[in-house]
Sequence to fold (173 residues):
Amino acid sequence: MTSDDLRKLIRDIPDFPKPGILFRDITPLLEEPDGLPAAASLMAAPFRGHGIDRVVGIESRGFILGPLVARELRAGFVPVRKAGKLPGDKLRESYELEYGTDVVEMHSDGVRRGHAVLIVDDLIATGGTALAAARLVERAGGTVGGLSFLIELAGLSGRARLERWPVSAVITY
Ligand code: AMP
Fold:
């Protein structure tokens, strides 16, 4: 499957979760048996041979894609979760939303000093969530080897906030 094939499996849902937002729904892609493996393979491709030790996936759709990308790269998987979900010692980062702030957390020992880390999520919009995940990785002593998304909403310029690192997206709107 090519990126164009995958694009046809993304469903647009207007005004979700609130008026004015065009939600890019990946569930039709998940229903297609070849969809998720192809997405993971294309997301991993630019980072093959880069010595990635850990894939960090962002809750919750990063938990669907991240482990498959980790398998493609023969790397371990580390979850970044919303506040209050992880049981062990953790690092936390807050980041700005359109209204208010949100918090993400990662186990302090999920990423070790010197690890090369690929950050994975389904979609980059403003880049705020991914930037918070990158800060967690660096505070744990890891190096961000890149960020890989299935979908990029280019109009929101999230990539500009991540300019320190290689950023890849399979499908761009
Ligand atoms: P941001 O921090 O602005 O880059 O937002 C990225 C996060 O919000 C990702 O975890 C996405 O899953 C979700 N998200 C933001 N905008 C959309 C959208 N239009 N459709 C689907 N998910 C979105």
